[in-house]
Amino acid sequence: MVKQRRIRSNSCCSAVAPLCCRRGPLKTLTKPAIFARETSCDCRAPHEKLTIAQARRGTPVDRPVRVYADGIFDLFHSGHARALMQAKNLFPNTYLIVGVCSDELTHKYKGFTVMTEIERYEALRHCRYVDEVLRDAPWTLTPEFLEKHKIDFVAHDDIPYSSAGSEDVYKHIKEAGMFVPTQRTEGISTSDLITRIVRDYDVYARRNLQRGYTAKELNVSYINEKKYRLQNQVDRMKEKVRTVEEKSKHFVYRVEEKSHDLIQKWEEKSREFIGNFLELFGPDGTWKQVFQERSGRMLSYALSPRESPCNSPPRELSPLRSPSPPSPPARWHNARPSPPTSPKGASASISSMSEGDEDEK
């Protein structure tokens, strides 16, 4: 495919054309399109008239179909490129010539341009679909112009183009059967781009002042210049405030994240502490078991105290105390009651002893 492109774009005729139709070394895709000379085809062979049906079948085989597309191409954009792409792909073997009108004609019939004609010429040369650029193209196409440049067909959108006192400057081309329509790209045009700039004029003026352009270069009055510079300062302050807010939000987020982690760890520790506390002091905890064991030992000690050791020294009687009563008769020694095993038994033995004393008396 690349080889085919190189052959078509470097000569007005195909590789099998006569030597007089070949034009210098082959051009690669990295080189810009050539500028048209006085006549863009040096071949002296008769230029036969083609129909659209013949061109779409790939005839004639000895040369490409020469298609012409003209325009202003100010602020060259994707809509221009897509129109030229359609013109280039109209036929199997197409040589696309693009005519660009000069500043003089454009300012006369259409209006002021943003780009100069030199800039517009160079913009077209670097479009990949263009084979040849025709400078200072005529506003209206005459039969002499078409014959001079051996043009087979003219490509343009089908909307009637009223200009130079004519309702449609392509009317006679259409009547001659040499017009091939292309489709416009909606949403993009040079007028749309200029409308955007005019609509946002203050924004672009402030931006260029900030980038170093002077008020004189921008055709801005002294008061507007001061206003724009003040607005730029206010915007910078707002940007700083937004930056500080973003940083503060990030800091607060980090603090919240850390505090959340600390609270989560504290909750885990508190649950662990409560669990350990319940294990110790709960209804079935360790401390209850220890307390029950110690209480049982103390109660058993109170009910059955241990005997005092045999070698303990006798107690001396205090002089304030009365002497102990005389020991009972010998008969009581033989009938010593068994020691009580319980408080009830002890009280029963005491009561029996008291009854015995009464009998004795």
From TrEMBL:
Family from the record: Belongs to the cytidylyltransferase family.
Taxonomic lineage from the root: Eukaryota, Metazoa, Chordata, Craniata, Vertebrata
Drop me one GO molecular function for this one: phosphatidylcholine binding
Designated name of the protein: choline-phosphate cytidylyltransferase
What PANTHER family does its record include?
A: CHOLINE-PHOSPHATE CYTIDYLYLTRANSFERASE B, CYTIDYLYLTRANSFERASE
Q: Which reaction does it catalyse?
A: phosphocholine + CTP + H(+) = CDP-choline + diphosphate
> Which NCBIfam families does the UniProt entry name for this protein?
cyt_tran_rel (TIGR00125)
State the coiled-coil residue ranges: none
